[in-house]
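User: What would this chain look like folded?
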Amino acid sequence: SNIDVFNGGINNSGTLRKSAGAGVTVMTAGGVHATVATWGPEVAALQNLQITLGEGPVIDAYAARRPVLVPDLMTATRRWPGYAAGALEYGARAVFAFPVQIGAARLGVLDICRNAAGMLSTTGLQHALTFAEVAAETMLDGQAGAAPGRTEAGLDQALDSQFVIYQAQGMAMVDLGVGLAEAMARLRAHAYAHDRPLQDVARDIVDGRLRLESDGP
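Assistant: Here's the prediction, encoded as structure tokens.
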């Protein structure tokens, strides 16, 4: 798919090859997040950590519509206490997030992480911004070739894993008698406490293998 081509493009870049890894997360204003391309052994785990906790450079870059540059994660423990601690455990020391957008249309975020502290060079920043533009064009080109009423195949598959989270959120809301925000917080807390991907916890809830415990009597 076009997403696979973009994924290979990151891998072939001399500038970004020095990074620990990179990934692209597609996002919507409604809160749908799904990783559609990654390069590097720990990137998928770092992306999932942000989805699970609801915090991190990807979340902030999308909301602010501008790059979030963190040359040393040791300085970000107050800003993102859960994400920074987890990312450092995975060996990341610097992260850089760039919105994937065209005009006012936001599509997602390109996230680059490195295993050494330090700011990207001017050339590295220029390459990252270029890749963010390529990512936007790639997603739009892929969608243009999709069947009417459908998303591009690779993107559709990635988003399916995210929609199950919202199914589980609704089920937890009913079971626990709480609001949507609290239900999502409980899902994330369970995933974090048991060191499991949020999508896996959600799938267990939807399939009836897991029910969250109520705090009440």
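Confidence is low (pLDDT under 50) at residues 1-18, 142-155. If you want, I can go into more detail on any region.
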